[in-house]
Specification:
The structure holds 2 protein chains of 2 kinds. Chain A is α+β, with helices and mostly antiparallel strands. Chain A folds into 2 domains: 2-114 and 152-309, no CATH class; 316-433, Alpha-Beta Plaits (2-Layer Sandwich). Chain A has helices at 17-23, 37-49, 59-73, 86-99, 120-125, 156-163, 178-188, 195-208, 259-266, 335-352, 396-403, 409-412; strands at 2-8, 29-32, 76-79, 107-112, 146-151, 168-170, 236-239, 245-248, 276-277, 281-284, 289-294, 297-301, 304-307, 311-331, 359-365, 384-393, 417-418, 428-439, 448-453. In chain A, strand 1 (2-8), helix 1 (17-23) and strand 2 (29-32) form a beta-alpha-beta unit. The longest helix of chain B has 8 residues, at 42-49. Chain B has one domain (2-112). The two termini of chain B are 25 Å apart. Classes of the chains: A alpha+beta, B alpha+beta. At the A-B interface, helix 2, helix 9, strand 14, strand 15 and strand 16 of A face strand 2, strand 3, strand 4, strand 5 and helix 3 of B.
């Protein structure tokens, strides 16, 4: 049996969770998922300002803390913390190991080659159109605005790094699930065409990839009874060679693992459940069987899979204008009516200034910003409401001017207004997401694994 | 038959892929799965969300989890980084769906009423 623990469900997750996973009980592998569609474009923005940036910086001080216990307990880490700069990340982790005093006793595996940016024009000229999977437009329509392009890569390079003995493996845009199933393939010697078992690994990876979201965090069912979320246990997959596994957490930690908490995570970000596509296999999530064994243990079995497609998904970020969102808070009585009047006043002023936007949006936080019209009409005795108004457009100066039109409403708009302590809203450059497919042979020969000694 | 809010029959979780939100709905009691399948047709769900979902609605069944999965296309104002919405990643479309009123047999209403709400 091999234990693969999850220590991070996104960039910004509980900083102490990986340390608790290592200290509070036995594990063999720790996977840390830092990436999402949004994250890649944030990292890309950071790299544009500083060529040394572009990865999950929190991971480096974390490794300073983790290296000594990892070396002592022979725990290996697999992470996509490398973001759009895995080399920069891996080199910083090597430095962290030296600071932690594990020189000569650990190594860092680095996976590169998922970054297609430098090859983009030659790929396009070779006929890879990289059409948008949602709109079917070819990438050429926005080529000059592309900021990053990364292929989602699977288990193969992680397996190679594990075989070469790397203790910490840093990748770029590896799929979230591969971080969990690559160690299973390595430990149990599953071959790439052992579709059912690899698909079981994909399911384990999907359960692990959002951290505590399968152990009681953000869990709707009976949320008011979930114990001790202040010290919630992150998930641990107890994997077996035959593909069956158990989802659990360390003894004595908070949270809960039941059929229901695991089911909520399984349906998270799901598309067609019969075709959960990864670079290594297509898993059929309608074959998943869950058995609640009690005591925070859920057994997962029955998973079926089939061969992967000839394509890899590509995550492309491109500049697509600017946006800004401003807020003001209005108090009783008639809080919602005041907020709506303020929005009307603001819109008239923006029109009079001749400012044009692709979109403007008004929401009332505390009333309709989450469920829209389904919330119904707000009552006159609503104690307070926050006006949230946003604009989006390709004219940066217009968006900038909008950010200067919020504060004037305090003295020139409807009454009972407060909550402007945060100051003028910030203009953000929009990095839009362009999902595409590329033939695998255009990417896979370019993947590279290097193992750096600490 | 009695009208009952879906929140008392099922729990749910939602997420995003680009401009599409997904909502996975799971019944509390396995015996109510057929009731859920009958009540939550693509058309009913599309009508429920109205202007909140600009594109089509797709439905998938997961009988093994007693769950349905809905894809709500064009629900996120362009999605992730583009969207001006507070809920740009569709995190709470789940409970928006659970607001739906559905017709259930009286005994189901008696058994389940209040199930989805904190005491």
């Amino acid at each position: 049996m091999v234990r693969i623990a999850s220590g991070q469900g996104f960039w910004g997750d509980d900083l102490e969770a990986p340390v608790r996973q290592v200290e509070q009980g036995p594990i063999d592998y720790l996977m840390l998922d830092y990436l999402a569609e949004v994250t890649m474009s944030i990292m890309q923005k950071q790299r544009a300002r500083d060529p040394g940036a572009g990865f999950a910086r929190d991971f480096v001080p974390l490794m300073e803390r983790l290296f000594p216990p990892l070396v002592e307990k022979s725990i290996r880490i697999v992470t996509n913390a490398g973001g759009v700069n895995p080399r920069g990340c891996a080199e910083a982790v090597v430095e962290a190991g030296r600071t932690a005093g594990v020189d000569g006793r650990a190594s860092v595996g680095m996976v590169t080659g998922d970054d297609l940016m430098d090859r983009l024009d030659s790929l396009l000229s070779e006929g890879h159109e990289l059409r948008n999977m949602d709109t079917d437009e070819p990438l050429s329509t926005i080529r000059d605005r592309v900021q990053s392009a990364n292929a989602y890569i699977g288990a193969a390079p992680i397996l190679k790094a594990l075989e070469q003995g790397a203790d910490v493996i840093v990748t770029g845009r590896s799929t979230d699930t591969a971080l969990t199933y690559a160690p299973m393939m390595h430990e149990f010697g599953w071959s790439a065409d052992d579709y059912d078992r690899v698909a079981a690994g994909v399911v384990a990876g999907h359960i692990n990839e959002c951290g505590a979201q399968c152990t009681g965090g953000n869990c709707l069912i009976d949320w008011w009874t979930v114990p001790d979320l202040d010290r919630v246990g992150f998930p641990i997959i107890e994997a077996r060679a035959d593909g069956e596994f158990v989802v659990t957490k360390h003894d004595g930690t908070g949270g809960r693992v039941t059929r229901a908490t695991v089911s909520e995570q399984i349906v998270y970000e799901m598309g067609d459940p019969t075709n959960y596509i990864t670079p290594d296999v297509i898993a059929d999530f309608t074959t998943i069987q869950l058995t609640d064994e009690g005591d925070d243990r859920v057994r997962v079995h029955g998973v079926r899979g089939k061969s992967a497609t000839d394509f890899l998904k590509v995550s492309i970020a491109y500049s697509d204008g600017y946006k800004a969102v401003g807020t003001l808070t209005y108090a009783w009585p008639d809080a919602a009516a005041k907020a709506r009047r303020a929005a009307q006043v603001l819109r008239k002023r923006l029109d009079r200034l001749g400012l044009e936007f692709d979109d403007t949006r008004t929401e009332l936080v505390g009333w309709d910003s989450t469920h829209g019209f389904l919330a119904g009409e707000p009552p006159a005795d609503l104690p307070e409401v926050q006006l949230r108004i946003g604009v989006r457009g390709h004219d940066r100066a217009a968006v900038e001017r909008f950010t200067r039109e919020i504060a004037p409403l305090i003295l020139t708009g409807p009454p009972s207004v407060t909550g402007f302590a945060g100051g003028r809203p910030r203009t953000q450059e929009i990095m839009a997401y362009w999902p595409a497919l590329i033939r695998r042979e255009a990417v896979e020969p370019h993947l590279s694994v290097e193992v750096l000694p600490v | 038959m009695t009208m009952m809010p879906l929140v008392d029959l099922a729990h749910a979780r939602s997420g995003d892929k680009g401009d599409t939100a997904n909502v996975g709905v799971i019944v509390y009691e396995a015996e109510h799965y057929d009731l859920l399948r009958g009540a939550l047709t693509v058309q009913r769900v599309k009508e429920h969300f109205g202007e909140l979902v600009k594109g089509s609605v797709e439905r998938f069944e997961l009988p093994n989890l007693h769950a349905l999965n809905f894809l709500l296309h064009g629900a996120l104002d362009g999605g992730g980084t583009v969207s001006l919405m507070n809920d740009a990643q569709g995190k709470v479309f789940s409970t928006a769906l659970l607001r739906m009123e559905i017709d259930v047999p009286d005994e189901v209403a008696i058994k389940m009423r209040g199930r989805g709400r904190a005491p």
